Amino acid sequence: MIKTLLAAMLPLAIALPAQATTLDPHQTQARDIFSHVIALKTEIGQGQVPVMAKYLAEQFRAAGFADSDIHILPLGETASMVVRYRGDGTGGKPVALMAHMDVVTAKPEDWQRDPFKLVEENGYFYGRGTQDIKSGVTVLAANFIRLKKEGFVPTRDLIIVFTGDEETTQDTMEDLVKNHRDLVDAEYALNTDAGGGDLSEAGKPLVFGLQTAEKAYASFELTTRNPGGHSSLPRKDNAIYELADALKKVQAYQFPVMWNDTTLASFKALGAATQGNVGQAMRDFAKNPHDAAAAAVLADEPSEVGKTRTTCVATLLRGGHADNALPQSATATINCRVFPGVAIDTVRQALQEQVGPKVEVTLVGKAVTSDPSPLRPDVVAAVTKAVHSIHPGVPVTPVQDSGASDGIYFRAVGIPTYGVDGMFMKNSDDFAHGLNERVMVKSFYDDLAYWYVLLKTVGGPAR
């Protein structure tokens, strides 16, 4: 009888998530917050960002934050949120802490699991936003709540800045720096939406990237025009053919090789841990950025080319208006990631020179550029301390992102910003913006512990 009962219970015991039986109260609360925010469809057009902000505000109030320190700022269908953790004023200007509440659209029919339900399976958390970047929202909120309950009083104000449309127009961030600077002004900002740690495929921590610079996002339209006519009377000039010729010129063009202190330090550190021709090219470029052969190797590597120059690539195409009519116009969208410090119009002019005067080149929407943030010793020391609290001895190196985040707006108005996401990930687990987005369960809880150390360090005694 006892053997039968034990045999029946054994599969149930094995099926229980090992992590779930060992969570402490702070991890449990963080998991609850994570589950709640993942369930909210904060993609564009859903109007759920203000709902998420309201939920988070309730958690902050319950922890003892005053209403006067919790701000929800509506903007169209979305909103931003600012929460101030008041210090005693002895440590200098505030430090801002960044994440965004919105996510890229997810089509449930394409996913293996419900993208708007936090699923824990085989050592991973699955769901839209688990990586980008509701994990960041969660660890900041959960640690603010924990520190408040513990009675921690920082020496300077700590300011959470949650935006609501980073994945689309970034209007909420623009609104904050232009119209609510008093709420978010800081000595510097720490961004959960950039930087982070690399794991080998075997799970070994390799390096932590401290992001000090990011490329600007800018899209341009190339347009050709023609009088058109009947398709039975083809003419030598044709808007679609001329656009195709222009696109081939853009494809063949490479922007000049560029570098800064961040990219050289990054290549030096990453090159030491990278095998093969790419690793050698990293080391050679770090020693001599005028090394054309090294730059050429890096240019052929999609993950590295953006660190050495501005890049532009065709992403959208449209043209013509009827099957039986010659096209009167044709348009292609060219998306560019602009090297820090390069003016947007410099890129536009370079494209115009390549495609010639018959092709219109116009900027789509807005674009913001910024210079790299200085590598502050106090920030490096604080981040290194936090990293080593979860992965002792892992090297910390500055990096430049080829993507773009809300951090560029802070840098543009003179607030140095550092991407310091505490999540460590394998390359094979990177599904941000894609199907079956996921993070390792252990990495999530390590991230929570990392931010606890980092917040107490930057909010501690003045240096």
Automatic annotation (TrEMBL):
Residue ranges constituting the Peptidase M20 dimerisation domain according to the UniProt record? 213-356
- Where would one find the signal peptide in this protein? 1-20
Offer one example of a GO biological process linked to this entry. proteolysis
Q: Which GO terms describe its molecular function?
A: metal ion binding; peptidase activity
InterPro entries in the record, alphabetically?
Answer: ArgE/DapE_CS, Bact_exopeptidase_dim_dom, Pept_M20A, Peptidase_M20, Peptidase_M20_dimer
Instruction: List UniProt keywords, sorted A-Z.
Output: Hydrolase, Metal-binding, Protease, Signal, Zinc
Q: Name one Pfam family in it.
A: Peptidase_M20
Protein family (similarity comment):
Belongs to the peptidase M20A family.
This protein's name = M20/M25/M40 family metallo-hydrolase
Taxonomy of the source species: Bacteria, Pseudomonadati, Pseudomonadota, Gammaproteobacteria, Lysobacterales
